[in-house]
Amino acid sequence: MIDVLSLFTIGFAFFVVAVSPGPATLSNATIAMSKGRKIALVYGLGLSSGMFLWGVVAVSGMGAVLQSSVYVLMVLKVLGGLYLLRLAYVSFKASLVIEDQENLAQIQACSYRKWFMRGFILNSSNPKTVVAWMAALSMGMQGHNDVMSLILALLTCMLVGYLVNIMYSLVFSVKGIMGMYQKCRRWVERAAAGMFALAGFGLLKSALNRS
To answer: How far apart are CA 97 and CA 146, in angstroms?
Structure first.
């Protein structure tokens, strides 16, 4: 069975991947600054659950199959790219809206379930996540292919993923940071839109190149 050092190696490798700036962490930070801690935590839970989906795919061995299945992977990348472009449009549109009490009321009316699903869809629509999983697992799984080792590795990465999303939700929902966001909200939303657009076009380009 896998040892503690190997689990630590896998967990650290996954932490580096999970904490790096990307569509998921960017959206988590933006939502924490704009919507507050509770909504950000629910959204982060959705992100982590979407990440868990790809973790199961990677651990079960389907990740390698998916990587070798050119057309299936291409379709998934197209769908993921289009969803990221939709997020870019939504973020840019939000930057043009003047926030008032009516808008804030609409935000509160949006159920936690919807915020959870938004996070889940974002991470589960990006097939590149399985590559990150496989890279992290390969760091410490040499010679440990039994079921228990795979389960422990999966749980370790999931714990790290949840902690990273919680960290982003807590740090960026601090009142001082939220106040700074309110002062430059439009520019933050437009920067987020640009990041989502780049990520979306990157996935579409990758799909067209069949990589």
So the answer is: 53
CA distance 18 to 12: 10
Closest to 24 in 3D by CA, of 52, 47, 58: 47
pLDDT tens digits, 158-189: 899 899 999 999 988 888 887 777 677 777 77
Q: What pLDDT does residue 101 have? A: 45
Q: How many residues does the chain have?
A: 211
Residue 33: how many other CB atoms lie within 10 Å: 21
Helices (H), the chain: 4-19, 23-35, 37-59, 62-68, 70-95, 101-109, 112-124, 128-138, 147-171, 175-183, 185-208
Q: What is the pLDDT of residues 78-108, one digit of tens each?
A: 877 787 788 788 778 766 765 554 455 555 5
Residue 90 has which token pair? 């939504």
